[in-house]
Structure formats: C-alpha cells, structure tokens
From TrEMBL:
Catalysed reactions, semicolon-separated: GMP + ATP = GDP + ADP
E.C. number(s) listed in UniProt: 2.7.4.8
Name used for this protein in its record: Guanylate kinase
GO MF assignments: ATP binding; GMP kinase activity
Entry-linked SUPFAM superfamilies: P-loop containing nucleoside triphosphate hydrolases
UniProt KW keywords: ATP-binding, Cytoplasm, Kinase, Nucleotide-binding, Transferase
HAMAP family: Guanylate_kinase (MF_00328)
Entry GO terms, CC: cytosol
PANTHER family: GUANYLATE KINASE, GUANYLATE KINASE-RELATED
C-alpha cells in the first residue's frame, strides 16, 4: 500500500480577508489536518501549554534555531520572536498529516524560500470595498489605520503571482470548499503519487 505523506499548505492573504475564519471552518470538517504550532519567546500565559498553544523557548534558544535554519519563517514583534519550527512540520508530514500554516504575506514568502515544496494558497476579498467593510465591522481600528491597512492590502494582492492558488473569500463555505478541492487535487498530482509509488516498489523488490 502506498504510504501517503502529508503536504504543507500555506494559507495567506491581506489583513481582514478572513484567513482565520476560513481555516477554523476547514478544520471543523477535516480531522486529518494539523495546524502548525508556532514557536515564541514570550512568556506562557495562564492555561497555555507548551507544544499545544505554542512551543515556548528562550531568546537564546530561538536565536540558535535561526542560525541553524531550523525555522521556516520568523518575525520579531513587541520584543519577542515568533516563528514556525521546521521539525514539527516535517514530522507531521511524514506521519501523513496535512499541515496548515495561516500566515501573513511576508511570512509566506519566507516559507516559500525555505520550504518550496509547500502549496501556497492566497485568499483575496471579492473587492477592496468589501475588505474595508470587514475591517470597519471589527470596530477596533481608527479610520487612519484602516486606510493604512487597505494600502498595504493593495501591495499584498499584487504578490498573488507568487502563489499556487487564489481563492476569493466571498462566502466562507464556498472558500472552504475551494480549499478542500485544492487539498484533494494536490494529493492526486501525478508527480506526487508517482514518487510515493516508486518508493513502494523499492520496498517490495
């Protein structure tokens, strides 16, 4: 029997497009998916567990991992580092699980450089007007910040050429169905199946 490996799927897109909503809805329907657990240097909050919410590491340990290229991407935010550990992703894929990484555009480009065999999915809004409405509906950001986010979104949308697939998030259920179709399609790709079948033939010799 073919031992099917998992695939790393990177779900990305501009702020406010609904990446988290789509990813959560997707996970409610597919139990084989694994969410990529991030690593951080920030202190553990009450109720959080190492290896469940985050992998908690010291600044020195994190910097050592950067130097050893053991992170698929990382960024510094308010004095703490956050990143995606390569080992966790590779172990889940080897075990046959599809790993989903929900991330902003700059981080996705880092992952593409470090893990080009991943599948990169870009989530876009039906229009910039709709994106503006979604950000405004949050009710948490000033008009100035909303304008800044929309300007950044324009630049990020121009980067969709770097992705393998583009999904319009006009409706969460529709977007989830499209992502599921991408997952199924990727597992049926000739090159991927042929590689796994050849490995099986080697074992059976």
């Amino acid at each position: 029997m073919i031992k099917e490996k998992g695939i790393l799927f990177v779900l990305s897109g501009p702020s406010g497009v609904g990446k988290g909503t789509v990813r959560k809805a997707l996970f409610e329907q597919d139990t084989n998916l694994k969410y990529s657990i991030s690593m951080t240097t920030r202190n553990k909050r009450e109720g959080e567990q190492d290896g469940v919410d985050y992998f908690f590491r010291s600044h020195d340990e994190f910097k050592e991992m950067i130097e050893q290229n053991r992170l698929l991407e990382y960024a510094e935010y308010v004095g703490n580092y956050y990143g995606t550990p390569r080992q966790y992703v590779e172990e889940m894929i080897e075990a046959g699980h599809d790993v989903f990484l929900e991330i902003e555009v700059q981080g996705a480009m880092q992952v593409k450089q470090n893990f080009p065999e991943g599948v990169f999915v870009f989530l876009i809004p039906p229009s910039l007007e709709e994106l503006k409405n979604r950000i405004q509906d949050r009710g948490t950001e000033s008009e100035e910040l909303i304008t800044s986010r929309l300007q950044e979104a324009r630049k990020e949308i121009e980067m969709m050429e770097s992705y393998d697939y583009v999904v319009v998030n006009d409706d969460v259920d529709n977007a989830v169905k499209k992502v599921q179709a991408i997952v199924q399609g990727e597992h049926c790709k000739k090159d991927r199946v042929a590689k796994q079948f050849k490995a099986l033939l080697e074992v059976e010799k």
